[in-house]
Design goal:
heterodimer; A: alpha/beta; Rossmann fold; 6-stranded mixed β-sheet; B: mainly alpha; 14 helices; 2 strands; globular
Chain lengths: ~525, ~325
């Protein structure tokens, strides 16, 4: 009983010449919860893939429960008791939520009585907060429900070891608390848990030990509190999120340009910002205005009367819990969802119901949630796409300016668009939005799933863009960062703005805390 | 709690009850009624009925592969052809009676599926589709060029084929077997595992499903049914030749039936076959027009009703249910 649950020795994973995992060893004792942290692209998900069996290691050995499982398939390991979740949820889309769990159940116990299997799955669904959607299809689940479904499906396997890959990304405080409660309660059913997470609260409250990975190698390991206090870890991963330091001073270390100090490029960047109309004396005319907008999907009403104005040069942030309607609102603004009532005006002209490309034509660019990088294209091709009808020298100039803003992209210009780390992909998505020289950009949850230090980098870029006079509309989970950047803030609840005002006023408003953190249930 | 943006859907229990009722009572009742009334039917009705039953059997089998298993195969013709040739060979050379030769022909087709499974399951998605198409074409070319099975002119059945009425009854029996197999495969826990593999093979493996085994079972069952249907066709025609039995028209007909009827839906193949056969009878005098119209219907269905006629009907029902 005292033998460790899982031991990995000298794991190496190579893709061609690229070493994704470089000689990583780890050991998890029974009853332990271990966290794996590290920058985006450090090889954390690869490590989970190696442990779960989706990937075969180039070298090394994995012993689970005293048995060498290195050569066993993912399916075999799953039946031995290794359950994993995917960072980007992969539910069975055309099956009901309950059937998603039953698939795991029936592969584990092929001849179990149907009623018993249903009972077991219902219990897991109730525990994961999915009981009310048990008979709906996986396809109809929004992202956060899909994340819960990932956990529920892994639990249906009655795992001894649970591998959780970023299940906390995109949750607001109250939801993170629910997740922490769930993980803590799982300790009684599961022999061991390995968590990959950027939400530091989850790591801090759930894990006894931490393993830090950087560039595929083990960077640090130890008790959670020690690792979190380490200066080296702060430099490669934690960034400023952990302390009270201002984001303007990233900590420079020899970490491959991850935190390299960078001068401001406000001058260069301003060339990416379209005419704002300020000089034309039309400052009172909003670029974008929504009047009493209602929208939804089929029977479900999601937006109930949104009034919004974005003036030239302004930065407007929209905050709110998950499910409040933020994503729907950004879809309405980008033209992918037609409002059922109300008007959308661009420069005072009614464009309600116009197709997406029309909005782009009017100088409204967007940086969508989930990044939407074109995988078959290279970084540079992705960037050139929105500027294809622009004169060659102008295009080259814009490209140069994006590269000045994000030097990482220049280094990887001929790489495939999705071969980069999450943070670099987000840079690419922002750079692509800027290439059309927009007058206004909609940023939808750009910090989702990013390492804290990467969020610092992105927000630095946004500050530069604000200085250059770019009008921005930001939909964001991270309240602190949004309040720092924005002029005006709206807090959304149940499809309408429950609280609106200047960032300064909102920050001091006690209702912010109440709305955003207190009443999520 | 989270607020979700989800359309309310009707209780699936009611739908399940309906399909269970139709599977256990309604369908057998229809079959018995057809079998009993067959002697009173005209030759034309029997001819149409035979064609309908044969196509439904093939379409059901293809629906199991493509609709439930995500294995979009263009290899239907290879299994139809093997079935027909196996029946002819068994009856000619070994004097096997047709009631044994038909299931044996099904087994021959399943054996072919088993043989090629390692190779074709290495391919996924579109590559699988192209792989099965290559299989069918390769077999056809082999049959044309290899003289051992009669070459391009084919083989004749040395015994007299059964009469039209008997053939209709055999078709009915094969259809009954097909319905039974499909009910077992689509309402059991096997169906859950199969659909999990269809939706995401890697994720299914990650929760313990053995994708290869699950796909193989579906492939074997479908090939067995297709082989029997091919054998029946061979028995009716009394002669087999490569261009007819291994022809791509089998593949295309079956595919259009399921797409028009509704992929992955239990009633899809029956509705699709009824529609296609009815259309071909109505336009029997205008063959060129018939092809053009079928093509047009396929395009319209794929564009506006991706779940076919049955899917369209279900959506309407759901919409009506929603407004109440």
């Amino acid at each position: 009983m005292n033998s460790p649950l899982i031991v990995a020795e000298g794991l190496v994973k190579k893709y061609g010449g690229v070493v994704a995992t470089d000689n990583v060893s780890l050991e998890l004792g029974r009853g332990q919860v271990m966290g794996i942290i590290g920058p985006n692209g450090a090889g954390k998900s690869t490590l989970i893939g190696l442990l779960g069996g989706a990937l075969t290691p180039s070298q090394g050995r994995i012993v689970f429960n005293g048995e060498d499982v290195t050569g066993l398939s993912a399916s075999h390991r799953a039946r031995l008791g290794i359950g994993r979740t995917y960072q980007i949820p992969r539910p069975f889309l055309d099956m009901t939520v309950r059937e998603n769990l039953l698939a795991a159940r029936f592969s584990l116990h092929p001849f179990e009585a149907g009623a018993k299997a249903h009972l077991a799955c219902n219990a897991i669904l109730a525990r994961c907060g999915l009981a009310d959607v048990a008979d709906l299809n996986g396809r109809d689940m929004p992202l956060l429900r899909r994340k819960r479904l990932e956990v529920a499906r892994a639990l249906a396997l009655e795992p001894k070891l649970l591998l959780l890959d970023e299940v906390g990304a995109g949750l607001v405080d109250s939801e993170v608390s629910e997740l922490i409660e769930l993980i803590k309660s799982l300790r009684h059913d599961v022999d061991g848990i390995i968590i990959i997470e950027h939400v530091l609260r989850v790591v801090r409250e759930c894990c006894e030990r931490l393993l830090v990975i950087n560039f595929g190698k083990k960077f640090a390991e130890g008790a959670t509190s020690e690792v979190m206090a380490s200066d080296e870890v702060a430099a490669v991963y934690l960034g400023t999120a952990h302390s009270d330091k201002k984001p303007a001073q990233p900590i420079g270390k020899d970490s491959g340009g991850l935190g390299a100090a960078k001068p401001s490029h406000a001058g260069a960047v301003s060339g990416l910002v379209g005419a704002t109309g300020v000089e034309a004396g039309a400052a009172t005319q909003p670029i974008l205005e929504l009047r009493g907008v209602h929208a939804g999907y089929g029977q479900a009403r999601v937006l109930n009367g949104i009034d919004l104005q974005v003036r030239p040069g302004q930065v407007v942030a929209i905050l709110g819990t998950n499910g409040a309607g933020k994503t729907t609102l950004s879809h309405v603004i980008s033209g992918t969802i037609r409002p059922t009532e109300g008007q959308i005006l661009v420069d005072g002209i009614d464009v309600t119901g116009a197709p997406s490309h029309k909005f782009a034509r009017l100088g409204l660019a967007q940086c969508m949630e989930g990044r939407r990088i074109f995988a078959p294209l290279t970084v540079e091709e992705n960037l050139l796409l929105p500027a294809r009808s622009v004169a060659a020298h102008d295009r080259a100039e814009r490209l140069e300016r994006v590269y000045t803003l994000f030097p990482d992209l220049k280094k990887m210009r001929s790489n495939g668009g999705t071969s980069m780390s999450g943070g670099q992909q987000q840079m690419l998505a922002i750079g692509r939005a800027l290439m059309s020289r927009p007058r206004m950009v909609l940023f939808d949850e750009i910090s989702l799933g990013l390492a804290p230090i990467m969020m610092d980098r992105l927000y630095e870029a946004l500050f530069e863009l604000r200085q250059a006079g770019l009008t921005m509309l930001i939909v964001e989970q991270d309240v602190e960062r949004a309040l720092e950047l924005a002029d005006d803030v709206h807090v959304m609840e149940h499809g309408h703005f429950a609280l609106s005002g200047t960032a300064k006023a909102i920050r001091e408003d006690p209702r912010l805390r109440h709305l955003y953190i207190g009443t999520a249930d | 709690m989270l607020v979700s943006n989800i359309e309310p859907t009707p209780s699936p229990f009611e739908l399940a009850k309906m399909s269970r009722f139709s599977a256990y009572l309604f369908l057998p009742a229809c079959l018995v009624a057809l079998a009993v009334s067959a002697p009173a039917m005209s030759d034309y009705a029997l001819e149409i009925g035979f064609r309908l039953l044969l196509l439904i059997t093939l379409a059901e089998a293809w629906n199991l592969l493509a609709g439930y298993g995500g294995l979009v195969s263009l290899g239907t013709a290879s299994f139809v052809g093997i079935g027909a040739y196996a029946l002819t060979g068994l009856m000619n050379k070994a004097g096997v009676p047709f009631y044994l030769a038909i299931p044996a022909a099904g087994l021959a087709a399943a054996l072919l599926a088993l043989t090629v499974s390692r190779a074709v399951f290495r391919l996924r998605g579109l590559y699988f589709t192209v792989g099965t198409l290559a299989l069918a074409e390769a077999l056809r070319m082999f049959m044309v060029n290899y003289s051992g099975f009669g070459g391009a002119s084919g083989l004749f059945l040395s015994v007299d084929p059964p009469g039209l009425l008997d053939l209709f009854w055999i078709a009915l029996a094969i259809f009954a077997v097909t319905s039974l197999a499909m009910t077992a495969a689509t309402s059991s826990r096997f169906s859950i595992l199969l659909r999990a593999v269809r939706d995401d093979e890697d994720a299914a493996a990650q929760i313990g499903v053995r994708p290869f085994r699950i796909k193989l079972i579906a492939f074997l069952v479908a090939s067995f049914l297709m082989g029997m249907a091919g054998a029946l066709q061979g028995l009716k025609v009394g002669a087999v030749e490569p261009y007819g039995m291994f022809g791509i028209q089998w593949t295309v007909n079956v595919l259009s039936i399921v797409i028009i009827g509704g992929q992955g839906l239990r009633a899809g193949p029956i509705v699709g076959a009824l529609f296609v056969v009815l259309l071909s009878e109505l336009l029997a005098d205008y063959p060129a027009l018939h092809l053009a119209i079928t093509g047009l219907i396929l395009i319209v269905v794929i564009r506006y009703a991706p779940k076919g006629l049955v899917g369209l009907f279900q959506r309407r029902q759901r919409a009506l249910g929603g407004t109440q």
